[in-house]
Design brief:
Blueprint: H1 4-7, H2 10-19, H3 37-41, E1 70-86, E2 90-93, E3 96-99, E4 105-107, E5 113-123, E6 128-135, E7 140-143, E8 156-173, E9 176-195, E10 205-227, E11 230-237, E12 240-251, E13 262-272, E14 275-283, E15 288-297, E16 304-308, E17 317-318, E18 324-334, E19 339-348, E20 366-376, E21 381-392, E22 395-400, E23 415-435
Antiparallel strand pairs: 1-4, 1-5, 1-23, 2-3, 2-23, 5-6, 6-8, 7-8, 8-9, 9-10, 10-11, 10-12, 11-14, 12-13, 13-16, 14-15, 15-18, 16-17, 18-19, 19-20, 20-21, 21-23, 22-23
């Protein structure tokens, strides 16, 4: 029989890794696409085939052959309207199964977030350029009330990531650009959730966990310019194996489970997905350019969360995500020499499985429509703006949140979380580019 002090921390430590995959904000799964205002304005339809520092995150070849150095930056607030409602969640204590008590509906569990991003590129000569993109691709925050029906799956979730992408780009001939660099990523996560007691009528326990870590991946990209009017782009970002070291705190458990109360160290490791991006940009007229882009994302890399603790007693957590392909089309139109407007649409399917989706990742397929502009304020300064609307197809939460079965079947507390998710979101991005 496993010690309660280890097994009862299972759900809390599993959440450390799971929360880094929480992201019902803008892109499927946990990835946030909003790393450029210009990209946001055309629904991320042309980034693999665009040029300039603001496209570095999407394709490191974007700065190959640039004619001037550049600094860019953006801020993108995300306003989400969401509702998560109970649809038959149950808990079994002392052999008796009953509905999970508490508030059956949570409004706006996804909190307001602001995504910052910046990028710079330095032109060395006609062939060589170097760049640096600083992004926050996985930041996220959700909060459920302490009496929510979903409390055994999630209370508070906060995730912050900082990704540093130094890049070296080369344009050996007029029609070819190549770029590559590492992705150096810092992740900091905070998680809290309620813990069920082994008997009914007793206030819940609580678990808190904080973890962080540095991990490294890489990205490579290429752009082809067969004519002055056509650009083809392709980029590959590798998976990253993340390892988060954390401090877990358990409090409020009673009876035999009280042995689990206290502090401990633990860690969790998992893979974030690779992504292959392909895009085309056609300069149809002097004023009009049209773009198309597809992204194949290797979410199948996220099959499980490997948990590590003294004695190796914590079981791995299966996730069973599947690979996805999204697609987008858009345009840029130069109204005047100073003003360009743009727009686009995107479809992005969720990688989360129908069987196993939980309240931390209440994800669903989504459609995005966007519009934006660029205004050339001076010969060196361009101001960007964008707005987008994201409509999530309703999805269903279906998660086994059972606890303590590894200690003894006699004190196992089966918890089955069932819920319905409805959501939409608006993003409003502002940015600027300075050339020198």
């Amino acid at each position: 029989m496993h010690p309660p002090s280890e097994i009862s921390k299972r759900g809390v430590i599993a959440g450390l890794a799971a929360l880094t995959l929480a992201g019902q904000a803008h892109a499927a799964g946990f990835y946030l696409e909003d790393q450029s205002t210009k990209a946001s304005g055309r629904a991320f339809s042309g980034e693999a085939a665009d040029t300039g520092a603001e496209s570095l995150w999407y394709n490191p070849a974007a700065i190959a052959g640039i004619t001037s150095s550049e600094i860019s930056g953006s801020l993108t607030p995300i306003f989400t309207t969401s509702r998560v409602s109970d649809s038959g969640s149950t808990i079994t204590q002392g052999g008796v199964t009953r509905p999970v008590s508490g508030e059956p509906t949570t409004f706006k569990p996804v909190e307001l977030g602001v995504i910052p991003a910046s990028a710079s590129a330095l032109r060395i000569n006609d062939q060589w350029s170097i760049g640096l993109a600083i992004t926050s691709p996985f930041s996220f925050a959700t909060k459920y009330d302490t009496d929510s029906f979903a409390r055994y799956s999630a209370l508070t979730t906060r995730l912050t990531t900082i990704d540093l992408q130094p890049t070296l780009a080369w344009r050996p001939v007029r029609w070819l650009g190549i770029g590559a660099g590492p992705n150096i990523e810092y992740t900091d996560a905070l998680l809290t959730n309620a813990l069920p007691q082994s008997t009914a009528g007793v206030p819940d326990g609580r678990g808190n966990l904080r973890g962080n870590g540095w991990d490294v991946g890489y990205n490579v990209g290429v752009q082809l310019h067969p004519t002055d009017a056509v650009t083809l782009g392709g980029a590959y970002r590798s998976k990253i194996k993340h390892t988060l070291e954390g401090d877990a705190n358990i409090m409020g458990l009673q009876g035999l489970l009280a042995l689990a109360n206290g502090d401990s160290r633990a860690s969790a490791s998992f893979n974030t997905p690779w992504a292959a991006t392909f895009g085309v940009r056609l300069q149809v007229t002097d004023r009009l350019a049209v773009e198309g882009q597809g992204v194949r994302t290797g979410w199948g890399e996220f099959q499980q969360i490997a948990l590590n603790s003294p004695g190796g007693l914590l079981p791995n957590q299966l996730q069973n995500y599947h690979d996805t392909t999204n697609g987008a089309v858009g345009f840029d139109y130069a109204v005047t020499k100073k003003l360009t407007v743009r727009g686009g649409v995107q479809y992005d399917p969720t990688p989360t499985p129908d069987d196993g989706r939980d309240a931390r990742v209440p994800d669903g397929d989504r459609f995005l429509i966007a519009g934006g502009y660029s205004y050339k304020a001076t010969p060196r300064l361009v101001l960007d703006g964008a707005i987008s609307y994201i409509d999530f197809i309703p999805s269903h939460i279906n998660r086994n949140a059972s606890e303590y079965g590894n200690i003894s079947p006699l004190i196992e507390v089966p918890v089955n979380i069932q819920g319905e998710v409805n959501a939409n979101a608006i993003t409003m991005s502002v940015g600027g580019r300075f050339y020198f």
